[in-house]
Amino acid sequence: MRVPVYVLNLRGQPLMPTTPCKARKLVKSNQAQVIRRLPFTIQLGYATGEAKPKIKLGIDAGYSVIGFSATTEKQEVIAGEVELRQDVSRNLTQRRQYRRTRRNRLWYRKPRFNNRVATQKPGWLPPSIQHKLDTPKRVITEFQNLLPLTSIHIEVAAFEAHQLKKPEISGVEYHQGELQGYEIREYLLEKWQRKCAYCGKTGIPLEIEPIVPKSRGGSNRVAHLTLACRRCNRKKGDQTATEFGFPEIAKKAAASLKAAPFMNLVRTHLVEELGCGKTYGYITKHDRIKLGLAKSHVNDAYVIAGGTTQPRCRSFLVKQVRRNNRSIQTNRKGFKPSIRRQRYPLHPQDLVRYEGELYVVKGVFNYGKWVRLGEFTSGEKTQPLNQSIKNVNLVKYGKGLHFSYLTESTD
Ligand SMILES: [Zn+2]
Predict the structure, then answer these.
(1) What is the pLDDT of residues 358-391, one digit of tens each?
(2) Fewer C-beta neighbours within 10 Å, C or N terminus of the chain?
(3) Is residue 139 included in any domain, yes or no?
(4) Distance from the alpha carbon of residue 246 to the mean position of ligand 1, in angstroms
(5) Gap from CA of 200 to ligand 1 centroid (Å)
(6) How far apart are the CA of 158 and the centre of ligand 1, in A?
(7) Rounded to the nearest whole angstrom, what is the distance from the C-alpha of residue 239 to the centroid of ligand 1?
(8) 50-85, pLDDT tens digit by residue?
(9) pLDDT of residue 266 exceeding 90
(10) Which three-class secondary structure state does DSSP give residue 320?
């Protein structure tokens, strides 16, 4: 897999990425210097002109993973996944509990009311959701500093809710694999919550299924369609849903899907704020299947970015590293809670050098005097290596967005 080297000009603005070979020659001849290891970035020491090819960034913002890919007409220049934090809500609950117990220890506390943040700040979102909105913005800024992006495209929803006017009465040739068929399919998936209407199984291939079979005069209208797994579909055969023992399904199918899911609102908000292009899941899916790509966030982002047959590059895995732990915690012996006021010299995810080799700090112990080291690039479990911090030199603090390579198996 190709690994592009990102290039900045004299003033620190991004230029087109180059090859590792060319970058090595530039660095060896002192015409450029390395300013970042992951993603590998060099800064030129001389003034250059700027070639301006079109670079499109595609963002597939999922609930727990964000896929990203930037492509030109000739190649993919960056790709990968960002893992979103799943611990926001849990950490806040924990903080709340500690705070509650602490305050309950007081005899008297002034009455306070009308002090809920949600009522005081319009447009306030719960922190776990705010995080899902902030992260794509942060990631986009990160890439704008790395690549001369010309446009950004975000997938906002599975289907166009307002373009599908009166979706329940639109009839479709849903078997033919055309674009409209894909849209109806996404609509039905949303409506039936991605599970078989008869047995309720999820995570299996679902087939579009007329509630009254066509052979018995059933129609193709969306209000008469549901989703079923292959087994239930076979078992049902040419019976109607009522004959099959599910009289409530016809009623449920006639009602239309109303509220757009919350994440769609968040993404639409994002598009408006950044002023970037938007696309829909059914288009992505249609194009991805046409190109014969497997289902993954990176591949979706690649398709959103206008990727077709360009050579791909190695995918990054981006994690967000929390450097501070501000919640009050009971100490190890279970005595009174205390905030860790003093920071240790080294913390997990910091990049360090030990005996000339690069390592990542995996853990800190003995009051910060010793660290456990792990391998730099792969992040795989290797033989644990414990070292005193006296023998280890800091290279870079591991805060903020933390890049590593995505292992191929999860791709
Ligand atoms: Zn089923």
Answers:
(1) 888 888 888 889 999 888 765 555 677 899 999 9
(2) N
(3) yes
(4) 12
(5) 6
(6) 23
(7) 15
(8) 777 889 999 998 888 999 999 999 999 999 999 998
(9) no
(10) strand
pLDDT tens by residue, 318-328: 988 776 665 55
Return the CA Rg of the chain: 27
Distance 237 CA to ligand 1 centre (A): 13
Amino acid present at 393: N
| C-alpha span between 131 and 135 (Å, rounded) | 6
Query: Which residues have a beta carbon within 5 Å of ligand 1, which is an ion?
Result: 196, 198-199, 229, 232
Residue 388 lies in a domain: yes
| Interval between CA 218 and ligand 1 midpoint (Å) | 20
Q: How close is the Cα of 211 to the center of ligand 1, in Å?
A: 14
Q: What's the mean per-residue pLDDT of the chain?
A: 83
Percent of the chain with pLDDT over 70: 86
244 burial via Cβ count (<10 Å: 0-12, 13-18, 19+): middle
* Tens digit of each residue's pLDDT (9 = 90 or more) over 208-264: 888 888 888 777 777 788 889 999 989 988 888 888 888 888 888 877 766 556 677
Question: How far does residue 252's CA lie from ligand 1's centre (Å)?
Answer: 17
Asked, for residue 107, whether it belongs to a domain, the answer is no
> Are the beta carbons of 83 and 98 closer than 8 angstroms?
no
Q: Give burial (CB, 10 Å; 0-12/13-18/19+) of 70.
A: buried
Domain of 214 in residue numbering reads as 181-252
Distance (Å) from CA 257 to ligand 1 centroid: 21
Instruction: Kindly report which listed range (21-30, 172-181, 257-266, 369-378) carries the lowest average pLDDT score.
Output: 172-181
> Which residues make beta-bridge pairs with 351?
360, 396
Distance 290 CA to ligand 1 centre (A): 27
Identify whether 39 is preceded by a cis peptide bond (ω within 30 of 0): yes
pLDDT of residue 176: 46
Cα of 185 vs centre of ligand 1, distance in Å, is 17
Do 146 and 187 lie in one domain? The reply is no
Quote the CA–CA distance of 296 and 411 in Å, as a whole number.
7
Look at 112 and 175; give whichever has higher pLDDT.
112
CA distance 164 to 187: 9
Tokens of 234: 């076979």
From the CA of 227, how far away is ligand 1's center (Å)?
A: 9
CA of 203 to the centre of ligand 1 (A): 11
CATH number at residue 207: 1.10.30
Same domain, 334 and 301: no
d(CA 106, CA 101): 9
